[in-house]
Design brief:
Number of helices: 6
Helix content: 25-40%
Shape: globular
Structural class: alpha+beta
Strand order of the largest sheet: 1-2
Distance between the termini: 31 Å
Number of strands: 4
Length: about 120
């Protein structure tokens, strides 16, 4: 549980119980218990994002540091990037639902056969 939490927070910056336990629901109870303990120990903070019902977790100050950055970084994301694979998490945070259009008939594609999302 500790490894899953640390990995998700390090990779995503903020996490929900569902994003931490993605494809591994058997550990949800243990992860939930550990998350609450980490919050009590002040090693993690709980966040509520406006308009969302989910509880998010992050490290104290991590989001403030990200918001203070005065540089812009451009990332071309693979359709298999974890941030896109965890569709619910991506849609909640970025209001973007990526779909790998190579799997859809041409008439149902919006961006093309192999479009790569860009994160700025």
């Amino acid at each position: 549980a500790d490894y899953l939490i640390k990995r998700e927070i390090r990779a995503q910056g903020l996490a929900t119980l569902d994003s931490i336990c993605y494809l591994n629901s058997a550990v949800k109870k243990e992860v939930s218990f550990l998350l609450e303990n980490l919050v009590k120990e002040k090693r993690l903070i709980k966040l509520k994002l406006e308009g969302l019902n989910d509880v998010f977790y992050s490290e104290e100050g991590a989001l403030n540091e990200a918001l203070k950055a005065d540089f812009q970084m451009l990332h071309i994301l693979s359709p298999f990037d974890p941030i896109l694979i965890k569709r619910k998490h991506c849609e909640k945070i970025f209001d973007y639902a990526h779909r790998f259009e190579a799997y859809f008939p041409e008439e149902q594609r919006k961006y093309g056969y192999f479009a790569l999302p860009i994160m700025l």
